[in-house]
């Protein structure tokens, strides 16, 4: 549950102090830092930790969204190509 809430916080914040994160998760700030470090280290969450400033900087998933968007566009183009090919052969497809 704590990891789920931490992941949710990473979607809402660009950065957060350890003490604020601890309050948000209702745990000790040191434990919040440790959990975040483990999740980042295991690639389950994108971000970096600034221990001097006691802040976690979250990274957004812009690359992943762009890749997903490109895959959807490719799928739509492939479907259009199939439908165009069918139309050229005189096959009608109700849309």
UniProtKB/TrEMBL annotation:
Residues in PCI domain copies: 1-63
Keyword Cytoplasm on entry: yes
Gene3D superfamilies: Winged helix-like DNA-binding domain superfamily/Winged helix DNA-binding domain
Subcellular location: Cytoplasm; Nucleus
One matching Pfam family: PCI
Keywords linked to the UniProt accession: Cytoplasm, Nucleus, Signalosome
Protein family (similarity comment): Belongs to the CSN4 family.
Protein name stated in the entry: COP9 signalosome complex subunit 4
Originating organism: Arabidopsis thaliana
